[in-house]
Design goal:
Elements lengths: L19 H4 L4 E3 L5 E4 L2 E5 L14 E7 L3 H6 L9 E4 L3 E4 L3 E3 L10 H9 L13
Parallel strand pairs: 1-7
Antiparallel strand pairs: 1-2, 3-4, 4-5, 6-7
Length: about 130
C-alpha cells in the first residue's frame, strides 16, 4: 500500500484556498484599469484560536494585504513595525492571478501613494515619460 492511501482527506473549506507564499506574497497589485497600486509585502490573518494549536476545521483567514516601505528591511534585515504597513482590505480584492486585482481605483487606496509619487516626480521627468505609449 502506498503512503498516499494512508493520508486523510483535507477538510472542506468555504471559499478559495491559496498558498500565500506562491500566490500572494510579492505580487503586484493592480486596480481595475491596470494601474499599479503596490506589491503584497505581508498578510494580516485572523485565526479563531492561537497559532500554536491551529484547528484544521477553522483555518486562518486573510483580513488584509499589507504593503509598505520595506526595501531597507530587506537589505539590512529586521521587520517593519506594524504601524508602518498600509492595509488593503481583503474585501476589495477582485481576483488573484499572476497579479492581485482589486475592485477599486488605485487613487482611492492609501497604498498607491508611492506609485503616484514615483510617476509624478521621477517618471514624468524622463523625456517622453508624460504620455501613454499606446
Amino acid at each position: 500500500m502506498n503512503d498516499r492511501a494512508r493520508l486523510p482527506m483535507p477538510p472542506a473549506v468555504a471559499g478559495r484556498v491559496l498558498d500565500a507564499g506562491l500566490e500572494l506574497l510579492d505580487r503586484q497589485i493592480l486596480d481595475p484599469g491596470g494601474v499599479p497600486v503596490s506589491t503584497v509585502d505581508d498578510l494580516e490573518l485572523t485565526t479563531p484560536g492561537d497559532l500554536v494549536h491551529l484547528d484544521p476545521e477553522n483555518p486562518p483567514v486573510v483580513q488584509a494585504l499589507l504593503t509598505g516601505p520595506i526595501l531597507m528591511t530587506r537589505i539590512f534585515g529586521g521587520r517593519l513595525p506594524d504601524s508602518r504597513f498600509l492595509r488593503i482590505p481583503w474585501k476589495v480584492v477582485a481576483d488573484v492571478e499572476t497579479v492581485v486585482k482589486v475592485g477599486v481605483a488605485a487613487d482611492t487606496l492609501d497604498a498607491s501613494w508611492t506609485e503616484r509619487w514615483v510617476r509624478d516626480h521621477v517618471i514624468a521627468r524622463i523625456p517622453g515619460g508624460r504620455h501613454d505609449p499606446e
